[in-house]
Amino acid sequence: NGDAANPACDGIEGVLEAYHRSLRRVQLYGPTNFAPVVNRVARSAAEVLDGSQYFVLLIITDGVISDMAQTKEAIVNVS
């Protein structure tokens, strides 16, 4: 949602709103490192043990991921 201190969105509507807002604000440029973001979302998700929340990580890229091997490893590890 653009707020690093409180990154939660409320429902699918909140996810879509955050996505549309990001399209207007985000400028894509490199280097693009996704592994730290994947790992941060995974840590947040791991804190919810009762299944009361779900987590969606939407990755928008210009096509060039600088840490592809680490990103793949992070996705495999958190899945």
Automatic annotation (TrEMBL):
GO cellular component: plasma membrane
GO BP field: cellular response to calcium ion
Name recorded for this polypeptide: CPNE8 protein
InterPro entries reported in the protein's UniProt record: Copine, Copine_C, vWFA_dom_sf
Transmembrane region(s): none
Organism annotation: Chionis minor
Domain Copine C-terminal stretches: 1-79
GO molecular function, one term: calcium-dependent phospholipid binding
Domain of life: Eukaryota
